[in-house]
C-alpha cells in the first residue's frame, strides 16, 4: 500500500516481501548513487535493522527515513509534553 500511495505522487518504490529482499534492495539502492532519500516502513526496517543502521551511519547519501505503515503500532504523540520537556519545564 505504501509504495502504491507514494507512486501516485510520482515517487518510485520497490515492494519487498522478505528480509532478504529488503536487504538486497537497500544495499543496491545505497550503492546506486542516484538515490538521496529512502523512505522505508517501520515493518520493513524491523526486518533488517542492522542494514538500516549501517546505511544510516554513513556520511552522504542516501538518507533513510522510517515511517509507520498501515499496520504499524504507533503511539500518539503528546505534543504538549514534548514541548514542556524541550523547554525544561515538564
Summary keywords:
90 residues, mainly alpha, Rossmann fold, two-stranded parallel sheet, 5 helices, globular
Strand order of the largest sheet: 1-2
CATH topology value: Rossmann fold
CATH architecture: 3-Layer(aba) Sandwich
CATH superfamily: ATPase, V1 complex, subunit F
Query: What is the 3D form?
Result: globular
Rg, rounded, reads: 16 Å
- Which bin fits the share of residues in helices? 40-55%
Structural class: mainly alpha
What is the top-level CATH class? Alpha Beta
Number of domains: 1
User: What is the strand content?
Assistant: 5-15%
Please describe what this structure looks like.
This protein has a single domain, classed as ATPase, V1 complex, subunit F (Rossmann fold), CATH 3.40.50. It contains 5 helices and 2 strands. It has helices spanning 2-7, 19-32, 42-47, 49-57, 79-87; strands at 37-41, 63-67. It has a two-stranded parallel sheet with strand order 1-2. The protein is mostly helical.
Short structural description:
It is built from 5 helices and 2 strands, in the order H-H-E-H-H-E-H. It is mainly alpha-helical and 90 residues long.
Describe the SSE topology:
Layout: H1 2-7, H2 19-32, E1 37-41, H3 42-47, H4 49-57, E2 63-67, H5 79-87
Parallel strand pairs: 1-2
Amino acid at each position: 500500500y505504501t509504495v502504491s500511495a507514494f507512486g501516485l505522487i510520482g515517487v518510485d518504490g520497490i515492494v519487498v516481501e522478505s528480509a532478504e529482499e529488503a536487504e538486497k534492495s537497500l544495499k543496491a539502492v545505497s550503492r546506486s548513487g542516484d538515490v538521496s532519500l529512502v523512505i522505508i516502513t517501520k515493518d520493513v526496517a524491523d526486518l533488517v535493522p542492522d542494514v538500516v543502521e549501517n546505511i544510516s551511519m554513513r556520511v552522504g547519501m542516501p538518507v533513510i527515513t522510517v515511517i509507520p505503515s498501515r499496520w504499524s503500532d504507533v503511539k500518539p504523540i503528546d505534543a504538549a509534553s514534548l514541548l514542556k520537556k524541550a523547554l525544561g519545564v515538564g
